[in-house]
Design a protein that fits this description.
heterodimer, A: Arc Repressor Mutant, subunit A, 3-stranded antiparallel β-sheet, elongated, B: mainly alpha, 7 helices, 1% strand
Chain lengths: 98, 210
Amino acid sequence: MKRGIIRPSEIDRIIHEPARLAIVALLDSVEEADFQYLQQAAELTKGNLSVHLTKLEEAGYVAIEKTYRGKYPLTICRLTELGREKLEEYRKLFRSIL
Amino acid sequence: MTRNDLICDPDTLSRQLRQKAYNRDGLPEMAVGVSFLLIAALMGIQTQLQHGSLAARAASTALTFSILATAFASSRLIAWLRARFLVERVGYVKAKQRKDLRFWTLRIAAGLVSCAVVLVMVRFHRSIQDWWAVLGTGLLLGVGTAWLGRMRRFVLNGSLIVLAAVVIALQGLSQDAGFAWIYGVTGALYALSGGIVLGNLLRQPLESGD
């Protein structure tokens, strides 16, 4: 990859989508977060967030665990090692075009 | 070119989204507001006391300790309140343990710079004209509020603080009284905007689980 020139094939389409990038970037900056937090922070609808989380989980970038905190159901999301690696690659790609 | 073709810095994006999420319930603003009101109250009391008296020294010590205690306790209190009462509305998030040297170096440097600024202000504020010291403090608080908050309500608050500083500076008050007023107005604005945000959040109907 030459500095400043990126081929579309070099971009990770799973992370590159704006909503998914917001989710992955948020999860990278915290230990874990639940569905409600992600929905508010990323400013997404429930349906939208659900679809994007499923895609990220299928790709192995995000791990999802359903649990309870008292009576409150929590859908806890964490970035996996693969997710962190892919985000780091995306970061490097971003820096290479600056 | 569509929005999808634009590349965005993930770190900047994450910082912006987290900051917005952090301020989503108004609690941090209310904590800042209470801190400023506390400072204003104690400064106001000091203006009524004889300089160098035991009561003035006690008030000064109480001021220092209460600021430190508020700064130390507020983040824990906010986390507890969110976990106890607001988790269904604002969600759950566990912060990352920061262990990197750069993060802590920056924090310590920021703390040292803040202490140096306070010491310089304490040492030299008597040599500055009263109205200018009050106006300068108001400008710092107003611009700092708008810049650090980077949301519409913070910009509005910042503008109101600057406006209040101009009005207070024109009153010809002593520095101590001027400071008490400017900190009081700043605290009241923070507490009010935080309270409005929290009230709006609590009025929203709860959605069913995800």
